[in-house]
Fold:
Amino acid sequence: MGSQLLLRRRLINTINISTDNVVYVYAPTGFGKTVLARQWAETQSEPIVWFDGFATSQVGDLFGSIVSEIRKNIPSLNKSLAQFENLKEVDDGVLSHFLQVIEKDKSKFHIVIDNAEVIRRDHNGFARFLVGKLPSHIKLILLTETSPRTSFLQEHGAGRFTIITPTDLNFTSDETEQLADQSGVVLSPSNLIEVQDLSQGWPLGVHIALSQLAVTKDFKSLISSIQNKGQDQFTVPAQRILASLAQEELEIVTQLSLLESIDAKTALTLTGNIDVVRILTLLSQDSMVVSQTNDSPPEFAIHPLLRKVLVSEYQRLDEFQVKSENLISYLLDSGRIREVTKILLQLGSMDKLMKIVQEPTVARNIDLSIQESIYSSRTDHLRNWLDVYEHVPRTEEPAKRIIAFYIGILSGNFREAQSHLQALQVLSSDPSNVEVKGLQREILACESILAYASGDLSQCFEKAMECFDTASEDDFKSRGSSITHMRLALWCAVIQDDDSKVKRISQALKSKSFTSVTLHHRTIIHSMNALIAAHEGRFIEAKNELAVPLESDGQKHKGFFASFGGYLAEFMIVSESGDDQKGLTLLQAALDQAIGAKNFPMVATLLGRMSYQQVLLGNTEEALLCINQSREMITENDLSEELHQAVDIWEARVRYWVMDYKRADDLLSRSPNSYLMRAFRAGIYMSKGNNSKALEITETFDLQIPRQKLTYHLYRAHIFSDSYKGQFNEVRQAVEIGSKHGYFKHFLTQRSDVIQQYISLVAESPTPFNERLAKAAGERLNEMMVGSDDPTSSLTRREADILRHLGTGLPIGQIATDLCISKNTMKTHLKSIYRKLNATDRNDAVVKGKKLLKI
Structure:
């Protein structure tokens, strides 16, 4: 495994904490099973009996060797086990007696059996008996190249075993990085990813790659050499692994070895074997040769290092030429042009490659494939296209620079992206370049994206709109960046809470340019429409947009250009529905992705939204911690000051909620005049009793936007609290808007007298929504009254009104009519009043009420 060995603490801990007395470690060559067992043994205080399985036709020879090892290592058993050496016949009776002796002795020790598959193969009955009857105070470690059979687990009970698989034995990224440090190899984050992708965590592959890097120090050349030519050091262990396959299995993986990804249809077409999916599935479960990369539909991949050896062997076969041509034709017919170019590069078929990529239809498919690679953050695919362009004459330099720019963005290397953008700007100034106009649009798109990455939100938006204004309809049909940077521009508008910018994007999406785009583009547009609708408070519309699959493959992409707009829209819908925990879970998942992709503007807005969600749950400290984390990230990464202004929106919202009006005022004084900031300012004026100023601000709200119209009527309901009918009318209009667009939770964050009106409203208009809201309002009012020592302070405004009416002597029914509430609602209020005042009846309540409310 090399001079440097990584201590497998993670797996040693797995064995140590296991309460099972049988640990089954299985994997092919090169996974370090034996190394792991020896490292574990060194951590044990009890004696270790180590036994290497060997082939023999005589079970007595095998049994005698095991007995000899135990006697040698466990002195207390030396004498009592002497009777079992040199036995010619070993049956179940002998084995039972042997185990009884060990059980009686009670000496605690462990047994490690290496090459256990040899014992299982030659003497399966002996192996099963030993495992099944082993005393519980002894831990047995089985090291084998084959997985445990289902019948074996069923016979002994799966709960008796701790199973360590090849997947468990693979190095994690952290372990590879640790081994690199031990070996004196410096790996950048992108280098680490490439080593992991190439080796798939296979310990031997990682060791070999790092040992060569320790000598050559030329990472790029080494990886390229391994990927394109293979390395002799990998060949022998790879051949040993492949030699363990059955003939049918080897034939199948050989025929499929040119493919990076194998779907069921392709596997069946190329091999003609109707059983191919089952065989690939079993191989993925029992070996490192194949891994299953997707469940539904099933997709598989052959280990990349083994694939090199398989392809080399495949090329020596007489049938290779015909079968490879059939594969190329099949992939071209399926539109899988990237895989075709990858295979041709691998085989060195440059003439054929150049001929194919220069065909107009193929060139169009290449462009779409590059767009999809950008959209899905597949830097490996983009690098493949760079390799293709390096081998194709007459490929324009700008095309290579644009791909390299996106690789830099997706890798989080924004300086590298900037250097490629600067090179593009130089190329665009060349008067001999006939494609200057198209190149300038691409540069605008790249400038917009790079501005977003650095947090320069206004610059991102303006460059994106300039690109949109200068592009033709054909540009939108062919260039994926025309959608990508527009999506980022929308994110900027939402982050800045700029409704005018959101409107500009919305109008652009309705233009003719976006009506005939590809399926790939339409999925992005659905996501954008969902975010626009959710931002404007049209939650039902947003939910319907989200019901359309956002990705052509049915899965949300990850990375810098992930479906963050869809995540934000979904969060807004869920949050407004009142499911706080699900909302936090959605935010955290999106936040983890954004941090990993270095999408800093999205990190800032997600932390901001999380802060407000936390303060609504009463977690003020957590809310302020989110705000501080966001500001620290902006400072540490030297991002634009505009991101601080975006964070101001959320901090102002938190400060307003906790009634820290001084800090809220400071934030408002330095922030752009967005809708939310104006709403906070109006709220502060209301809290100070300056209703005329608050009304003046509400008149600036855009009543064509549901969220602003809703706030307009709710604020007026607060302001008109002295007029029952005036307040009721504003509440009624607010509820009409909210029920139409999917609001709910927002209603319950209002003042108690406004919430009380929802209960009154259901008497006038008993719709399902109003009834649901009235029920929630009652529960919310009860929550607001918890912990009050003064009965009058815990009474709601409506209850105080009813208490005053009780003192008039009017019948209950008449009071209900006067107050515009139903008799049932009146009864509910009376019960609540009696409980709070500790009153026995109406008269008692009136007497106590006279003292408290001056009735």
